[in-house]
Amino acid sequence: MSTKGKAYIVGAYEHPTRKAPDKSLAQLHAEVAKGAIEDAGLSKDAIDGYFCAAGDPPGLGGNSFADYMGLRLKHIDTTDTGGSSYLLHVGHAAQAIAAGKCNIALVTLAGRPRSEGVQTGTNPRLGNTNQPDLQFEFPYGPATANMYAMCAMRHMHQYGTTAEQLAWVKVAASHHAQYNPHAMLPKVVTVEDVVNSPMVDDPLHRLDCCVISDGGGALIITKPEIAKSLKRPLVKVIGTGEAVKHQMGGQDLDLTFSAGRWSGKRAFEEAGVKHKDIKYASIYDSFTITVVMQLEDLGFCEVGQGGKFVSDGNLISGIGKLPFNTDGGGLCNNHPGNRGGMTKVIEAVRQLRGEAHPKVQVPNCDIALAHGTGGSLGTRHVGATVIMERE
Amino acid sequence: MAGEERIYPVVPPTPGSEPYWEGANAGKLMLSHCKSCNKSFYYPRGACPMCLSTDVEWREAKGTGTIYTYSVMRPAKPVYVIAYVTLDEGPSMMTNIVDCDPAAVKIGQKVKVVFKPREDGTKIACFTPA
Q: What is the C-alpha separation between A248 and A390, in angstroms, rounded?
């Protein structure tokens, strides 16, 4: 069953904080929930479906947060695929709504790695030792940055992608971030700034990496009848797709592409739109290479041509053919809880509503895409794509 | 990486993976081999990811392979080279490239296994230029 047009995003809220030492994780979840509910023009009591990622809150997080916020629910889904969770949640919420399992779904993300001093990119974090891969990988020091660096190294080797091409992704994000008063890195940077910044994990420089920030975001998703009764612009979910990529016991190792190759195809097929129809794209930008690979995987350019595609400002709103991450993205604005999927949906909703900053608003933005991956492109991950249309 | 070397952390084995670590400690790189689809795979596990057969046995790898990709972890002390090595038997594995200048590591380079100490004195498989 297709869920095309069965659900609308009617509330979206990004927490303005980037550092929240004095707020608990649960408090941040409650604040983003409140923001999204108010944005939609609803009351808390209308919420009957709740989506969060089990990894955000410790333990049985969904249970605890429903309790903390006093939610009375008919439907709960704590699917956790890392940073892509919130993109999956949009699809899962559309399915639950279409199936009549709930009417108004709340999705929340919050995290405070900055206040907790998590060295996200450079310090390998030991997970649960029941995770079957852990004993065979953790000892070798896989941190987030060196995993993506290995993707970049192979992409450069195989396709001739250059450090300067990767740098253009950061340059574009910084052009957008200058207009975002909440952005952590609002300064416009050049290709030279990126390639001359300190090398972190060859071939990725410091400025190829995203920020580490506290904060969060939330969405409200509902069925057409309710969406049309509210006062907000109508943002309809027209296509969703998800996919898992791993290495099949080391037999299928290929770090030059992501699960977006499959999730994107599914979303485009359901939406029935073409790449030329997409006026704006939110692309998870944990690192510059992440964007280059995912643009190829989603079919915005040929395989191996992502470096060329992003060059010369092609991702800058008002200049390039595919405006991306007009909030400044994870690279310059915000990467709450080390999970970029939520802010990707939020900025796409702003664009479709015409509520992005005037300097980066895409004219006549009627169809937008949000895509991300969770886990690691260097090991195993889940990709998810959402295509939305302004009605 | 002359001088300073990483001392590798010990992650407790899961039930069934002990032969891998016993092999490493004895200087052998062990792979899982599926007797049903006749393919070796890594990381080791009790069910073949290709066909889900549980008729899986341990086989010693030759310990030779080729660097598929790598990165130099510069913020770390000591600096280390993380890599994927494609073994001559077929599967690829995450590892470290050791006993060489990180700046000289290249994709496509031939490497051979070498065993390095863990915190508890047991050993783990790494690779060095052949």
A: 40
pLDDT tens digits, residue range A105-129?
999 999 999 999 888 777 877 778 8
Which residues of A, range 358-387, sit inside 8 Å of B by Cβ?
Answer: 379
Nearest-CB residue to B39 (from A157, A247, A251)? A251
Number of domains in chain A: 1
B109 close to A (CB below 8 A): no
Residue type, A43: S
| CATH number for the domain whose boundaries are B18-129 | 2.40.50.840
For residue B85, the SS3 value is: strand
Q: Is B114 on the interface with A (CB under 8 A)?
A: no
Q: Crossing angle, helix A85-98 and helix A341-353, to 10 degrees?
A: 60
> A171-206: per-residue pLDDT in tens?
999 999 999 999 999 999 999 999 999 999 999 999
Give the pLDDT confidence of A153-164 residue by residue, as tens digits. 999 999 999 999
Check CB contact under 8 Å for B95 and A140.
yes
Structure ipTM: 0.97
Asked, for residue A181, whether it belongs to a domain, the answer is no
CATH number at residue A55: 3.40.47.10
Q: Which residues of B touch A157 (CB under 8 A)?
A: 69, 107-108
- Where helices occur in A304-361 by DSSP H, the ranges are 306-310, 341-353
